[in-house]
Design brief:
The protein is α+β, with helices and mostly antiparallel strands and 571 residues long. It contains 17 helices and 23 strands. A hairpin with a 2-residue loop joins strand 7 and strand 8.
């Protein structure tokens, strides 16, 4: 097999991967390679929401905030304190780097980066450049990476990680155009492959995003909080989160059976007033939350009940929901619409007043909300768990770093928008550590490689995962699926890169490896008390809850820190 070398290899061309490569090059790493299946693929470039949120330290107003305050808000009982502190500490510098690269986060006339409150937060730390914040970030970071002449290997799908006694030795990739394998010998490997989107059928992740978490599991890395996912309402034909203004415009929820009979199932189940209240609350309580099962998360359950019964569910922005009238709204909903100048006659008029780009976005994908209903489901949207990492985003496999959504730095209730900050903070930390860790490319002889991969129907395993292990979970169903997955992983055969089903089998293996670990964590969590404290660790399909690493005691005496910093950076 053909071989090349690079001391540090970054896999992924989203916000995390590009920032890792950009940071490495800026710090002087010359032996560097960015590997991507497709520069234009992935979640960062192809997804968003009504106003996609970037979460960071508050930089406006008179409300008090600090690195410690932000870290404590991120450090839930199931989140490690050191990674929470690192994400809090790096949030301002990473944010200002993006601003310097041209990401147009809005300011008032005095230069304050004014924010708003997002879900699971109590401060106005959130900001946005609109529905496509992560896309704008990705494009800005790509411009910087290309300006720094970072070598890019495109159309290369990561296939296998090779390790030895001292950790990472090489990455094997499948060149999709040449239909051959390539070994990239390296000392450091930074995986920024996104969340494991392809383990579910119903998902809001774009078609171009599948993730490759199985690569890390296969070489011995542990998982953290793999049971923790974020699910929410999303459109089907064009995959998009239906949070924020899409709900605050108060559309009509309607289901349609095979005979074309419509019904407003929310009003039927909840009553007209409660249906209006919960629809509005879905704007900032968009993720399904078991704690809100007696409140707004009833909407998710009712949507699933309709789809499970074989009916299609739609949001209708053309007609008001049953019982709608300004005087029928809660004071919160009425006040919000009045302040937005959106107390108007129809949902589409209200949506236009609140957020016109939210309508234009769908129109750009051939869906006219002025004329048609929008089919929806409850979908997997974000993995709050992932590969376990330390405060440098290094796994327990030396030289293997994992950043972005693939990393397990969140738990049950991350504040909305923290994921985008994590892509920048984690990749910066990984790049800084990889540059100075002293690892060099191992001197190993060239060798051939033969991948043994399973055969099977990816769609079947995805559908089963959605059926028994999504936001509503069936313990017996998960146990049966886990046995099925483990059996499929044992049924392998040699795979030749020129075979037409090679990529399908490669992706199936990744799905199965990831589902096995995720199902193990979910089954363990299903036997625990609700909201059990500690991080749920999983390794080789065995899970256990361990205490979260505490918030570090840190030295804040300037002269001490200055001296240590000079020693570390200048020897």
């Amino acid at each position: 097999m053909r071989e090349i070398k690079a001391r540090t290899v970054v896999v992924g061309s989203g916000c995390a991967g590009l920032n890792a490569a950009d940071t490495l090059r800026a710090l002087g790493e010359e032996s560097l390679l960015l590997v991507t299946e497709d520069m234009l693929s992935g979640t960062s470039r192809n997804t968003g929401s009504d106003k996609q949120t970037y979460y960071k330290l508050s930089l406006s107003g008179d409300d008090g905030d600090s690195v410690g305050d932000l870290a404590r808000d991120l450090h839930y009982p199931d989140v490690n304190g050191d990674t929470a502190l690192c994400e809090a500490a790096a949030s301002a510098s990473c944010f200002f780097k993006l601003c310097s690269l041209g990401v147009p986060f809005p300011t008032n006339e005095y230069g304050e980066y004014v924010g708003y409150q997002t879900d699971h937060d109590t401060r106005r730390r959130a900001t946005s450049v609109g529905p496509l914040t992560s896309k704008v970030m990705t494009e800005a970071l790509e411009r910087s990476v290309r300006a720094r002449s970072v070598p890019i290997l495109d159309h290369a799908l990561a296939a296998s990680i090779e390790t030895g006694e001292t950790g990472v030795e090489a990455l094997v990739v499948y060149l999709t155009e040449e239909k051959e394998l390539l070994r990239i010998r390296c000392a450091n490997l930074i995986l920024c492959t996104g969340g494991p989107a392809h383990i579910y059928r119903d998902r809001v992740y774009p078609e171009s995003q599948h993730g490759m978490s199985g690569l890390a599991f296969a070489c011995g890395a542990q998982g953290a909080n793999l049971d923790c996912w974020q699910y929410g309402l999303a459109s089907v034909a064009f995959r998009w989160n239906l949070s924020g203004s899409y709900q605050q415009a108060l559309p009509r929820y309607v289901s349609v059976d095979a005979q074309g009979v419509e019904r407003e199932f929310l009003a039927d189940a909840l009553g007209e007033a409660r249906a209006l209240e919960y629809t509005f609350l879905k704007g900032y309580q968009w993720p399904f939350d078991p704690a809100r099962l007696s409140g707004s998360s009833q909407v998710d359950v009712l949507v699933k009940r309709e789809t499970d019964a074989g009916r299609k569910v739609y949001l209708d922005f053309l007609h008001n929901p049953r019982g709608y009238a300004p005087e029928a709204l809660t004071s919160e909903a009425r006040s919000y619409l009045e302040k937005c100048g959106a107390l108007l006659e129809t949902p589409i008029a209200r949506l236009g007043a609140i957020n016109e780009p939210a309508i234009a976005l769908y129109l750009s994908h051939g869906i006219d909300l002025h004329r048609e209903l929008l089919e929806i489901r409850v979908c997997a949207q974000h993995h709050n768990g992932g590969i376990a990492v330390d405060m440098h985003w290094q796994t327990d496999v030396p030289g293997l770093y994992v950043c972005g959504e693939a990393a397990g730095t969140f738990g049950r209730k991350r504040p909305g928008g923290t994921a985008l900050n994590a892509t920048q903070a984690g990749s910066m930390r990984a790049a800084q550590h990889a540059l100075r860790n002293g690892r060099e490319i191992a001197d190993i002889p060239p060798r051939e490689i033969m991948l043994s991969l399973p055969k099977g129907d990816r769609a079947h395993f995805q559908a089963e995962m959605t059926r028994v292990a999504a936001f509503l979970r069936d313990r017996e169903g998960m146990e049966a699926l886990k046995k099925h997955v483990e059996s499929a992983l044992l049924t392998v055969a040699p795979a030749v890169p020129t075979q037409p089903d090679f990529v399908d089998r490669l992706l199936l293996r990744d799905i199965l490896l990831t589902q096995r670990e995720v199902l193990s964590a979910m089954l363990y969590a299903s036997r625990e008390a609700e909201n059990a404290p500690g991080v749920l660790m999983t390794h080789n399909a065995i899970s256990q809850r361990v205490p979260a690493r505490p918030m570090p005691e840190r030295d804040l005496w300037f002269e001490h820190v200055w001296k240590k910093y000079r020693e570390e950076t200048h020897g």
